C-alpha cells in the first residue's frame, strides 16, 4: 500500500449527509469543522496527513522481540515526547514504512490520520472492522475523513451535545478538561453564531446508499447499523471484540487520549504554528493523566 487513494475533496451535499448522520444542524457541523479539524486532509503528494506516535507503537507491540526491535531502531519508546515529533510528512511516512515492517496493524494503529487526526486504534469506535479498512477510508476522500470524525463523536456519545448545542460538554469530551482554558466552547459558539440561517436545519438521516457514496464503496468494512435518528435514543457504535487500545502492562502509564490537533506540525519551510497548538496537546495529555 502506497497510501495514495482518490483523495477526493468534499462535494456538494457531503456535509449535509454527515450532519444527518449525527442528527445535528448543518451549522453545528460546520462550526465543529472550523474549530476542531486540522484543516488539512491530504498532503500535496495525495497521501493522508498523519502523525506518528512512537509511544503508542511501543504499547501496541507489547513485550517481546518485535518491541525490542522497534526500540532498537528508534521507532518506539515508552514515554510520550521522549523525542520530538518528525516534522515532515515524508519523514513520517518513512517511519510508518519501517514500523510496518515490524508489525503492520500496530503501525497503522499508532498514527493519527486526516482531518480529525483520529488515532488508528480507534478504528472500531469509528465503525471499521480493521485498521486497514479505516486507513483505506482515510485515503479515499475528505468526506470519508469527515465521516470518521462523526463516528468518533458518536462513539464517545458526544452527538447529543451537538444536537442541543451544549458547547461546553462537547468541548470537554472532545478536547479534554482544559477546554475552558483555551476557550474551545466559546469558539464553537461563536463559529456557530456566524453560520447563515440557511444552515440551521437538521438534514434527514442518510441511508446506506448515501453512506456508500460518501465512503466510496468501502462499506464492506464499515458498521452502518447504528445511524442516529433525530429524536431517537443515541446509538451505541462498535461491538464485541478487542478494546480500542490494549490495556497498559504492569508499571506502564495508561494510554493517552486520541490526538485531535489543530493543524499538522509545520514542514521546515512552513510558517510557525500559533502558540496555542502545542499548549493544547500538552493540556490534553496532562488532563488525561490527572496532572
Quick take:
By secondary structure, this protein is mostly helical.
Descriptive notes:
By secondary structure, the protein is mainly α. The chain has one domain (14-288). It has helices at 14-22, 26-36, 54-61, 65-72, 89-102, 104-109, 131-140, 142-155, 159-164, 167-175, 179-182, 184-193, 208-214, 276-288; strands spanning 50-52, 111-113, 118-119. A 3-stranded antiparallel sheet has the order 1-2-3. The model is unreliable at 230-291 (pLDDT under 50).
Keywords:
mainly alpha, disordered C terminus, about 290 residues, 3 strands, 3-stranded antiparallel beta sheet
Q: Mind telling me the C-alpha Rg?
A: 18 Å
Provide the structure class.
mainly alpha
Mean pLDDT: 80
Largest sheet: 3 strands, antiparallel
Give the helix tally: 14
Shape: globular
Annotation, overall tally of beta strands: 3
Which percent band covers the strand fraction?
under 5%
Fraction of residues in helix: 40-55%
How many domains would you count in the coordinates?
A: 1
Low-confidence stretches: 230-291
* N- to C-terminal distance: 40 Å
Sequence of secondary-structure elements: HHEHHHHEEHHHHHHHH
Widest beta sheet: strand line-up: 1-2-3
Task: Give the topology.
Layout: H1 14-22, H2 26-36, E1 50-52, H3 54-61, H4 65-72, H5 89-102, H6 104-109, E2 111-113, E3 118-119, H7 131-140, H8 142-155, H9 159-164, H10 167-175, H11 179-182, H12 184-193, H13 208-214, H14 276-288
Antiparallel strand pairs: 1-2, 2-3
Amino acid at each position: 500500500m502506497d497510501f495514495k487513494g482518490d483523495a477526493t475533496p468534499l462535494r456538494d451535499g457531503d456535509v449535509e449527509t454527515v450532519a444527518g448522520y449525527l442528527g445535528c444542524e448543518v451549522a453545528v457541523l460546520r462550526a465543529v469543522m472550523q474549530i476542531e479539524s486540522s484543516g488539512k486532509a491530504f498532503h500535496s503528494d495525495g497521501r493522508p496527513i498523519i502523525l506518528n506516535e512512537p509511544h503508542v507503537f511501543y504499547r501496541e507491540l507489547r513485550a517481546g522481540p518485535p518491541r525490542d526491535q522497534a526500540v532498537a531502531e528508534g521507532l518506539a519508546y515508552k514515554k510520550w515526547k521522549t523525542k520530538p515529533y518528525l516534522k515532515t510528512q515524508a519523514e513520517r511516512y518513512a517511519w510508518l514504512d519501517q514500523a510496518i515492517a515490524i508489525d503492520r496493524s500496530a503501525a497503522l494503529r499508532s498514527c493519527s490520520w486526516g482531518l480529525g487526526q483520529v488515532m488508528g486504534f480507534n478504528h472500531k469506535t469509528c465503525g471499521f472492522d480493521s485498521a486497514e479498512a479505516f486507513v483505506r477510508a482515510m485515503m479515499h476522500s475528505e468526506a470519508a475523513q469527515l465521516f470518521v470524525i462523526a463516528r468518533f463523536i458518536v462513539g464517545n456519545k458526544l452527538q447529543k451535545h451537538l444536537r442541543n448545542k451544549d458547547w461546553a460538554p462537547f468541548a470537554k469530551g472532545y478536547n479534554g478538561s482544559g477546554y475552558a482554558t483555551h476557550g474551545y466552547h466559546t469558539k464553537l459558539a461563536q463559529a456557530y453564531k456566524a453560520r447563515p440561517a440557511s444552515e440551521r436545519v437538521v438534514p434527514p438521516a442518510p441511508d446506506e446508499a448515501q453512506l456508500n457514496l460518501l465512503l466510496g464503496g468501502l462499506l464492506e468494512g464499515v458498521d452502518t447499523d447504528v445511524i442516529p435518528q433525530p429524536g431517537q435514543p443515541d446509538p451505541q457504535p462498535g461491538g464485541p471484540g478487542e478494546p480500542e487500545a490494549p490495556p497498559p502492562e504492569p508499571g506502564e502509564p495508561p494510554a493517552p487520549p486520541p490526538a485531535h490537533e489543530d493543524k499538522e506540525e509545520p514542514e521546515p519551510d512552513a510558517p510557525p504554528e500559533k502558540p496555542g497548538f502545542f499548549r493544547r496537546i500538552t493540556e490534553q495529555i496532562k488532563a488525561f493523566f490527572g496532572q
